Amino acid sequence: MKWCPLCLSLVLAGFGLPFVHAGTFHEFSSKDGSRSLQAEILAVNVSRKTIRLKTSDGQVIDAPMSAFSEGAVDHARDFLAAMESGRRLGFYFDEAEAETSEKKEPSRGQATLTTPTGYLVKVRNNGQSPMEDIEFEYQLFYSEDLVNSGKSPRVASGSFALGSLLPGEEKELATEKVDLVRMKKLPASECTGSS
User: Fold this and answer.
1) N or C: which end of the chain has fewer CB within 10 A?
2) What local confidence, expressed as pLDDT, does residue 86 receive?
3) Which residues, in sequence order, are CB contacts of 97 under 8 Å at separation 6+?
């Protein structure tokens, strides 16, 4: 029998900046307020002072920042700051297992092995300036061999509030542990009624 692996899903929830990410539609108004459109930001080019947008009908537009209202330009700056902050963070993951426990069931000819398993997450600021108010959420997707056979994976969720990270600083955190369970056959000599 094999162990069913854990899968980690990670969501960054903040850097002391408004929560802005690709895929979020926002209303972009013209500088004079006469026109507006719903679009998501695909990119911000600082040197060319342009914003690449994808409208709700799928059209991609490159437009100068000067064409938009102050609120729209602020939204683009928030997007850029959030993306740059995310690039400066490094994440390193190690699986963390506790000791496996075994419960023998001689009458059934099997043993149940349970291993509490999670992740150690190292978060490092690879940038040259401090990062403030860092928070992230995680989800562990897992299943148990035989016990959860054919069912949807189970999910364990949690979150961390790191506070701040100085340049080059690294913090290590541990996720919640989940019990991975597997069954194994006992040797005939350990089974009830064997000779």
Assistant:
1) C
2) 66
3) 115, 116, 117
Banded pLDDT at 67 (limits 50, 70, 90): very high
CB atoms within 10 A of CB 66: 9
* Separation between Cα atoms, residue 139 and residue 153, nearest integer Å: 12
Nearest-angstrom CA–CA distance, 46 and 43: 10
Q: Which amino acid is at 64?
A: P
Statement: residue 14 has pLDDT above 50: no
- 104-114 in b/e form (b: 16+ CB < 10 A) is eeeeebbbbbb
**15 has a pLDDT exceeding 70:** no
| pLDDT band at residue 20 under the 50/70/90 scheme | very low
In angstroms, rounded to a whole number, what is the distance separating the alpha carbons of residues 72 and 138? Answer: 31
Q: What is the mean pLDDT of the chain?
A: 78
Q: Are 41 and 63 in contact (CB under 8 A)?
A: no
Backbone angles phi, psi at 126, to 5 degrees: -90, 0
Residue 137 is predicted with a pLDDT of: 80
Rounded CA-CA distance 179/104 in Å is 17
User: Domains of the chain, with CATH numbers?
Assistant: 7-13+89-190 (no CATH), 20-88 (2.30.30.700)
The values of phi and psi at residue 76, to 5°, are -65, -40
